[in-house]
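task queued by scheduler; priority normal; single chain, no ligands, no partner chains; default sampling; output format set to structure tokens
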Amino acid sequence: MPDQQRLEPALIKVGVVVVLGTIMSILDTTIVAVALHTLSGDFNVDFSTVQWVTTGYLLSLAVVIPVSGWAIHRIGAKPVYMVSLAFFVVGSILCGFAWSATSLIFFRVLQGLGGGMIMPVGQSIMARAAGPHRMGRVMGIIGVPQLLGPILGPVIGGVIVSNTSWRWIFFVNVPIGILALWLAKDFLPRSERDNQHRFDLLGFLLLSPGLALLVYGLSQVADQGGFRGASVWDSIVAGVVLIVLFVLRSTKALEPLIDMRLFKDRTFSVAAIGIFLTGATLYGTMFLLPLYYQVDRGDAAWKAGLMMAPQGIGAAMVMRFAGSLSDRRGPRYVAVFGMALLALGTFFYTSVTATSSYFFLGLALFVRGIGLGFGMMPVFAASYRNLTHQNVPKATSATNIIRQIGGSLGVAVFAVVLQTQIAQRFPRTGAQLEAGLVTPTMNDLQRIAAAFGHSFWWSFGTCVIAIAPAFFLPNEGIAKRDGAAAIAQPAAD
């Protein structure tokens, strides 16, 4: 038994390669957050435009995730992983040399196309190399970047932006990516190819532009002064139509990008709603927080990044405990407790001022992080609860897509709300204040804080809404359910 549990050197080497690639992809979802204020000033663009640096990356992650499963079967896991790493490195280099907001957003989308495949393909490689009897220990290795990313990303990004050019938040990926590529060539095992699987090209062509048009339409609300502009409605309606067509298409496709049959399971559907809302408040609030510290408090990027760390620390402290508690007691009340804590931590930010105590702000974010840990893990675990072994990979792809879509919509909506609030309070100088081109007075700072407080109400509302689906999750531990099934089985026979 000890020999079966032992991780041999070859498997550890595979783990090193996978962790190197995964941590790059995860860090880039958070490391850019503290640079958005600097980018807004350097490129002279408003928040509704600069948010696309984050949103574009999240959207490209979402649309490329389902491609990874087909690519693994048709091309092989090792070459797909190496191509994804190379794509990510090239995208990072291009981002570092971006000359405008438009070029940076475009290159971030390219970077995301590589980054989106790194994690699912890496998990697949690790699962095949380890075998089912060692998956618990292997998932612990893969989970390291997921725990460290939210903590280290903003801090590293803040230090880089404060001491060098923002371009280095992208260039820092290059040596790590090259090292991962070099190690992957020698350490990753080859896998068999399977030409039986088909790629749902029509579904991909419906989903990708549908999501982009929907988010673009929402991001134009601030520029058009509300939902009155034709470009707003044209984009939103076109996006919704394409997404509806994608859903209808997916119910009939043999191998759809998102298997809609998964949603026939009530627990999966409820968990998917929770995952979507959690993604929206997680990424949306991470967009707002660094901007509050930099625009309203005048903090350097490194300090803004450091102030983000309590959330990641709180989540990392309780994630494993929350998962095991959910297995023993059932996910319902664990998730409800987590979402309630998430809402409580967010509530403190709805009344921020230009002089709010850093201690209480950090404490509130720590509480929010604990809420994320207790809320997110049970919801994700519940999504797999009633699924067959064959449906687990489909569910993994679907839940990751749903989280990224929720995050991209959250960022877009919160950015529009913030920019609209600032524009209402500063009709003439709002754009200059956003970019840091005007020195605000204390009265100005209090009004800016009020704009952020109003925006945080939207995040708070999202957290409160997320409590509702948690009440519909199962209220029975896995061990108890499996034990009851085992007792009932002989009678059924």
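post-processing summary
- Residues 392-425 form the longest helix (34 residues).
- Confidence is low (pLDDT under 50) at residues 482-493.
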